[in-house]
Amino acid sequence: MVSFKRYELPPLPYNYNALEPYIIEEIMRLHHQKHHNTYVKGANAALEKIEKHLRGEAQIDVRAVMRDFSFNYAGHIMHTIFWPNMAPPGKGGGTPGGRVADLIEKQFGGFEKFKSLFSAAAKTVEGVGWGVLAFDPLTEELRILQVEKHNVLMTAGLVPILVIDVWEHAYYLQYKNDRGSYVDNWWNVVNWDDVEKRLEQALNNAKPLYLLPQ
User: Fold this and answer.
1) Are 204 and 65 in contact (CB under 8 A)?
2) Which residues are annotated as a binding site for Mn(2+)?
3) Chain mean position to CA 8
4) What is the role of this chain (predicted)?
5) pTM value surpassing 0.70
6) Which CATH number among 3.40.50.360, 3.40.50.970, 3.55.40.20, 3.30.70.100 corresponds to the domain 98-211?
7) Burial category of 53 from C-beta neighbours within 10 Å (exposed 0-12, middle 13-18, buried 19 and up)
8) For 127-170, how does the pLDDT look when each residue is reduced to its tens digit (9 = 90+)?
9) Helix, strand, or coil here: 80?
10) Could you tell me which CATH number the domain at 25-82 has?
11) Which residues are annotated as a binding site?
12) Given the DSSP bridges, would you call strands 129-136 and 159-165 parallel, antiparallel or unpaired?
């Protein structure tokens, strides 16, 4: 029996109005219930098409279905990281501690230099996409990335630990076309505790398969 598990929309770890005044309730509600949910449904729809194809019930355009799955699955994963990467003002914001702070200091020469580079990356993503801070298991260092859409320019093997959505639906109702102000204000709700947990998990996990000795 050909069958794949389905993805589900995760609940937010806070109320829809919890990130105000930096991200308003209307944006959060639409973003989570409509946009993120669309990616979940899209990934599941692609899996259903593949199931039917494998069972001999339907022919599919394999290239198109695989592209649909990649786009929607990546959208689901990025948002699943994005929500807990933020916390209400007071809990979110400020500066990191722990291993995250140590790596930022060592690699970028301090938090302000890191923040400036990450912000510039997020503000200048071409079209729509994400700013990403990822862990590199090859060097055990941090990397700043620009990801277009959800899945274009995402480097294989890197583990995202902090992401910001710079699709217009993430900010337009509040900031209009001023992506820069949205990115600047987003720092007030960054959940550094969550980022630290993701880094620790990445550091403690076994080396990926591509790093195993031959």
Assistant:
1) no
2) 31, 79, 165, 169
3) 16
4) Destroys radicals which are normally produced within the cells and which are toxic to biological systems.
5) yes
6) 3.55.40.20
7) middle
8) 999 999 999 998 999 999 999 999 988 888 899 999 999 999 99
9) helix
10) 1.10.287.990
11) 31, 79, 165, 169
12) antiparallel
